[in-house]
Amino acid sequence: MRVNMAQFLTPDFLLLNKTSRRLYDDYACTQPVMDFHCHLSPKDIALDRRFTNLSEIWLEDDLYKWRAMRANGVEERYCTGDAPPYDKFLAWARTVPSSLRNPLYHWTHLELQRYFGIRDLLNEKTAPTIWSEAGEHLASEGFTARGILKKFGVRVVCTTDDPADSLEFHRSIAVSGCGTRVFPSFRPDAVLRTGDLARFNEYVEKLGASANISIVHLRDLLSSLKSRHDYFHQQGCRLSDHGLNCCYADFPSDSEANVIFDKARANQSLSAAESGKFASYMMLFFGHLDAEKGWTKQLHLGAFRNVNPNAMRLLGVDTGFDSIGDWQQAIPLASYLGRLCIENALPRMIIYNLNPADNYLFASMAGNFQNGTAAGTVQVGSGWWFLDQREGIEWQLNSLSNVGLLSRFVGMVTDSRSFMSYPRHEYFRRILCNLLGQEMENGLLPQDEELIGEMIQNICYRNAAEFLCLPGVS
After folding, report:
1. Residue from 201, 199, 188, 191 nearest 232 by CA
2. Residues 6+ away with beta carbon under 8 Å from 448
3. DSSP structure class, residue 268
């Protein structure tokens, strides 16, 4: 028996009253998408990749689905391993019924419906038909990487790129006539990872080669990074990004930083304090680079990464074995932002929080560093990773509203590696419209749909377009 979604994911999904539905239909749903932080492959966009089956486009790099499959007792070969594509998909289909009340259940069926018009619930019985129907769509016009971006109204994509990257695929996209503007983002995390000196020094050599600079001393490292930062700027980059447990704020002198770097280049192990001092020094340097060029700096704080040592040994990093971290955030965040202020080098900034216990901390901290140069100079970013579901999104919206200005919020990002993730913008917009619509009907907000609707449009697209200053984007 095929059970469809007639009473599930209806046009009123997540919209619990008439006002919410009007807000969504009249103001939110037609706004273009500004996906200013994601992990999509620039190569896939440059080559306009066509995905041959659901497993490729849906499961290839989806850490969320891998985690759910593992929790459902699925062997690793069906997640990251060498199982045939259909077998991986079937393992996911068997997992979906067990994901009720996990956001994956909503996202899975939103994606099937929005991409392929498939309204059946995914399970082991419906899997063969859904595999076939989706495959037919993927083979048709409009389902290449660029076609998908066009289908979902994605006006801007900002990928996540290492400073040593050649950006060859971004250059190719820029002259290709692609309807979506695709920009790189500068993510220099590898420069901070001095805990593994073999990998660190290997990376330093790679970075130097990309800048055509022999890196011997710290000044050479800084020159290489500035050269690459300049190059990224020439390619349209206006955002940097850092994935940190918490901010580094133990600032050394120039001479002390030089000694630490020389020690690292000599493969002499650094203490935790030395590694922290070096990272603090580099983060100040990156702040200056961004401020000088008018970039926006993104700080993704609070992830506890690669927790499982066996998985790390067998599978490596970024395979879905991460968690929310319980790091102290207030003092180092205040110290880092404060030091940038003292040095007149505070760029526009978006700080993303992963621990919901820290929502009000982040929202109140952002308010301390507004400097009048832009509306919302320091922004609290959208709920991400473990918090990009309904409850997490509402927590973020409520904390920002209560101690900041929701009207200036720059909105949602997918933070995804998958071209199947764009309904998450719809998901966010429905949650936003429902929250505001309920408060309008309860008398907590005025019955002025034009006023509230304009704020919704700003949050969905316009605020980010104005805040990020991306070339040619308005």
Report:
1. 188
2. none
3. P
Q: Residue 299: which of 363, 349, 370, 238 has the closest Cα?
A: 349
Strands (DSSP E) contained in 138-295 are 154-158, 181-183, 239-244
Element (H, E) at 296: strand 296-301
> Do 400 and 363 form a contact (C-beta atoms < 8 A)?
yes
Scanning 47-153, the segments in alpha helix (DSSP H) are 54-59, 63-71, 85-95, 103-116, 127-138, 145-151
**What's the angle, vertex CA 470, arms to CA 435 and CA 26, rounded to 5?**
30
DSSP 458: I
Confidence of residue 3 (pLDDT cuts 50, 70, 90): low
Residue whose entry in the numeric block shows the structure tokens 């949650």: 431
Task: State pLDDT tens for residues 369-421.
Answer: 998 777 779 999 999 999 999 999 999 999 999 999 999 999 999 999 999 99
Q: What is the pLDDT of residues 291-332, one digit of tens each?
A: 999 999 999 999 999 999 998 888 888 888 999 999 999 999
CA distance 225 to 287: 12
CATH superfamily to which 50-138 belongs: uronate isomerase, domain 2, chain A (1.10.2020.10)
Candidates 377, 383, 333; CA nearest to 353 is 383
CB atoms within 10 A of CB 1: 4
Strands 348-353 and 378-380: parallel
The residue type of 65 is K
Whole-number Å distance between alpha carbons of 216 and 210: 15
Cβ pair 65, 59 in contact under 8 A: yes
Question: Residue ranges per domain, the chain?
Answer: 50-138, 145-468
The CATH H-level superfamily of 145-468 is Metal-dependent hydrolases (3.20.20.140)
448-461: average pLDDT? 98
Question: Distance between CA 165 and CA 228 in Å, rounded?
Answer: 9
Contacts of 264 (CB under 8 A, 6+ apart): 194, 197, 200, 201, 270, 278
Residue range 207-246, pLDDT digits in tens: 999 999 999 999 999 999 999 999 999 999 999 999 999 9
- Distance (Å) of CA 190 to CA 118, 196, 205, 225, 247: 42, 10, 12, 12, 15
3-class SS of residue 140 = coil
- Give the global pTM: 0.95
Residue 240, SS3? strand
48-104 pLDDT, tens digit per residue, is 999 999 999 999 989 999 999 999 999 999 999 999 999 999 999 999 999 999 999
